[in-house]
Specification:
Largest sheet: none
Number of strands: 0
Order of helices and strands: HHHHHHH
Shape: elongated
Helix content: over 70%
Number of domains: 1
Structural class: mainly alpha
Low-confidence stretches: 1-23
Length: 130
């Protein structure tokens, strides 16, 4: 929706921004894997979600600090840890993006940082809702 607020009256710009908006639409997290692991045991499901809710913000903050300090090795290690949570939430395309970003960090490049941080934002929002 951000793209619509940036539009001019020019129809060509509208089509370009609309295309970008649709092409950038991200996968949405889900609990399918957690539900599969927990089966009918709601307490297991709650414990898994609680652990993720406790760990994820800390890992996200540590990652942000590492990126800010250009500590590529630490950032890559944190992306590696976070990738597992991305996978747990069924975000297959996001997992691939995170893997690529991890590789870039190992090569001392921040290519993909915006996309990865968008993934972190989506997960953070989701964790607030569950």
């Amino acid at each position: 929706m951000l793209y619509f607020s940036l539009l001019t009256s020019d129809k060509i710009n509208y089509k370009i921004y609309f295309f970008i908006f649709l092409s950038k639409k991200m996968e949405q997290p889900n609990l399918n894997y957690i539900e599969e692991l927990a089966g009918d045991d709601i307490s297991v499901k709650r414990k898994l979600i609680k652990i993720i809710k406790e760990e994820f913000p800390k890992e996200k903050e540590s990652y942000a600090n590492a990126i800010e300090k250009n500590n590529f090795n630490e950032a890559a290690a944190l992306v590696h840890k976070i990738k597992h949570k991305i996978s747990i939430f069924g975000l297959e395309k996001c997992y691939k993006s995170a893997s690529n970003f991890e590789g870039n960090l190992k090569e001392k490049s921040k290519k993909g940082v915006e996309e990865f941080e968008e993934i972190l934002s989506v997960i953070s929002s989701y964790l607030k809702r569950i």
